[in-house]
């Protein structure tokens, strides 16, 4: 079974509040047959912080990814495409 990488990039910008934040949620296979959900967030242009969550199978990781996506969309983040524009 092959597992492919899944990544979502979100951004929240408000120039009036000097707000420029990103949030990345990525699913990637680990070396032991499981998957890792990697959350990376911070100010745009900086490395930010990172947290990793390990899962035994892909469906569990995808459910967690969707949970974080819904949370961030409620907080005002919007999806970004590969070149940095709004999707």
From TrEMBL:
- Sorted alphabetically, which InterPro entries does this protein's record hold? WGR_dom_sf, WGR_domain, YehF/YfeS-like_WGR
Top-rank taxon, per record: Bacteria
Name all WGR domain ranges.
1-87
Q: Where is the signal peptide?
A: none
UniProt xrefs under Pfam families? WGR
Q: Which PROSITE patterns match?
A: WGR
The molecule here is called: WGR domain-containing protein
């Amino acid at each position: 079974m092959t597992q492919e990488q899944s990544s979502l990039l979100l951004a929240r910008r408000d120039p009036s509040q000097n707000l420029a934040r990103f949030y990345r949620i990525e699913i990637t296979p680990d070396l032991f047959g499981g998957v890792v959900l990697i959350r990376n967030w911070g100010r745009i242009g900086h490395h930010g912080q990172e947290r990793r969550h390990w899962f035994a199978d892909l469906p569990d990781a995808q459910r967690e990814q969707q949970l974080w996506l819904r949370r961030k969309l409620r907080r005002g983040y919007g999806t970004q495409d590969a070149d940095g524009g709004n999707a």
